[in-house]
Design goal:
Blueprint: E1 52-56, H1 63-72, E2 78-82, H2 83-87, H3 103-125, E3 129-134, H4 145-152, E4 157-161, H5 165-173, H6 183-193, E5 203-204, H7 211-227
Parallel strand pairs: 1-3, 1-4, 2-3, 4-5
């Protein structure tokens, strides 16, 4: 039996796109380069810049909430990529780090980080900014900045969000599921995050700031980082 005839092309449709899919060419992603600072810093408008930002902080710092708020309100297309979200794509066999850090949880963390990096590079290559968030430690190479730089590129702009311990404990208590940690674990992570002080990375202490104010401060920090990228 012969196949049914193809439907007629809509008026004005290019012939080469009729009855085809995948004809939109997407630029391939590559390492994200350092952003070009404006020739006149006073004219910098970070809301229109295509950037890749890594928001770092302990559980309960509010980094995911701030990242989503910031991404939602930018004047250019912006994606939010949470490493925790990507890690939890694994349903059966999910290796929860809270149950113990071992070769399985490390492998799934590395895989999630590589997946986030691949997504960020492709978004950036197609004109879409990215803000990623992860609890990156200053003293543990496995969950450190090196992997992020390798998977995203030298143009990634890291920013640390680090409120006081009391605030982190309070915010963590409002979390649920895999995202909620014990008070002891939160205190341990927060203590290790203090190592970012003196690292040269920009740090926002949002202990007394609401989400809107923190996002505004993030804009200011990113603007400075574009003009003078931090060494890391």
């Amino acid at each position: 039996m012969s196949p049914p005839p193809a439907p007629p092309a809509p008026p004005g449709a290019p012939l080469e796109t009729v009855n085809t899919t995948g004809h939109v060419q997407l630029p391939p992603g590559g390492p994200v380069p350092l952003p070009h600072p404006p020739s006149d810093p006073s004219l910098a408008d970070v809301s229109q810049a295509t950037v890749a930002v890594l928001l770092i902080g302990p559980a309960g710092a509010g980094k995911t909430t701030v990242a989503r708020y910031w991404a939602d309100r930018r004047r250019v297309p912006t994606a939010h990529i949470s490493l925790d979200d990507v890690r939890e794509w694994v349903r059966s066999g999910f290796a929860n780090p809270q149950s113990g850090w071992n070769e399985h949880s490390e492998a799934q963390y590395r895989l999630a980080r590589r997946t986030c990096g691949f997504a960020a590079r492709n978004f950036l290559a197609n004109g879409i900014s990215c803000i990623l968030d992860d609890a990156v430690f200053p003293d543990r190479p496995v969950v450190g900045l090196g992997g992020w730089k390798r998977h995203v590129g030298p143009g990634l702009l890291p920013v640390v969000v680090l409120p006081g311990l009391e605030i982190v404990l309070e915010r963590n208590a409002a979390r649920s599921g895999n995202r909620r940690l014990s008070d002891e674990e939160v205190a341990r992570i927060h203590g290790r995050m203090a190592g970012w002080y003196g690292s040269g990375l920009p740090i926002i202490d949002n202990s007394t700031y609401d989400v809107e104010t923190t996002a505004r401060m993030l804009d200011e920090v990113v603007t400075r980082s574009i003009a003078s990228p931090p060494s890391w």
